[in-house]
Specification:
The protein has 422 residues and is an alpha/beta fold. The protein contains 19 helices and 14 strands. The chain is globular, with a radius of gyration of 22 Å.
Length: 422
Amino acid sequence: MSWQLALYNGLWRLLTPLARRYLKKRARKAPAYREHWDERFGQALSPKAKGAIWIHAVSVGETRAAQPLVAAIRREWPDAPLLLTQMTPTGRATAEQLYPDAEVRYLPYDYPQAAADFLRSYRPRCGVLMETEIWPNLIHAAAAQQVPLLLANARLSEKSLNGYRKIAGLISPAIRKFTAIAAQTTEDADRLKKLGAENVSVCGSSKYDIEVPQAQRHLAAAFRARLGGRRMLLCASTREGEEALILDAWLAAGAATGDALLALVPRHPERWDEVERLAVERGLKTQRRGDGAAISADTRVWLGDSMGEMFGYLGACDVAFIGGSLLPFGCHNLIEPAQVGVPALFGPSVFNFQQAAADSLAAGAGRQVGDAAELASAALALMDDPAAVEAMRQGAARFRDAHRGASDRMLALIREAMAAAK
């Protein structure tokens, strides 16, 4: 064991009280954090079925991104049990909604014994970690127990690479033990190799393969009916600090006096009340999606206080802004607007979706704005220009269709890994 791994394990033991305090603090705003603590700390190991195909998706975005891969796995191995693990309550709730026949639970924190016991108890046929989930003890335990373990939809920014290099003695031995890695882009693959990764393939992102469920299309139609013909700018997955900037820019642009509606859907549900307060403090009449009512003519802000309905909101809007990009959060899923053919605006911070942002711009599916003022003016200009909106809708279709097929390429890696493990 390297000294860095020994230090890492020592820190986990020392930080356990802080982890419990963190969960209690989060539970004040999001009560779901009080639940299933035993799973987080490596207890409650009572699998419904051993030998499952296991997918770990840390939160909502990763859980949704796994959908096409799960569908491909089920076509290939229809009788195999499915195990889904997450780290957040919203991710867990999303998994329970999307995969009702799967076993859903939290992945334990990366204590050496907890990781080993989890794998020994569940005995998965194969494990797939979505995006950049590098848990050293879990990876070492999988190798020791001969569980094929893949990293899918893998991405690594230059900033993250530089951070990992500082703890290369901890990360590099672990990343070399992945059975296979499916990187999103050539740049991601190159950066992963610089960390010592082997067996790296460029497969793209499974997010492009997601099909909009029919229920979400019906929901979009219901939302449009509630709009009563009004135009709508959707600000999706906004983060703390962004809503205030957007509201101020919307007011400064004079948009709050017209018929255009501003819809805000915060990334985290515990912030719904806070975002409503921000709008009301600015004198903007606000309604919540949860009231089920038609949107009044004098309502200026519609608050999306629901989970799992993003395609419904996207299908009802005229223009979408993708949150996490005005402030340095790296942007959230800017592929989703393309899946419903909606023009997408995004801010300057896109390090989580750098290649997708470039491809979106090249296809004419998206536009990048420098700040909230530019966001407001660009959205209003688009809503007054049907020809420009139609051109961006066509660009969205090109952007989406050019990148499909990642899930089948990942399935081939899983098939190969499972065959080699027999």
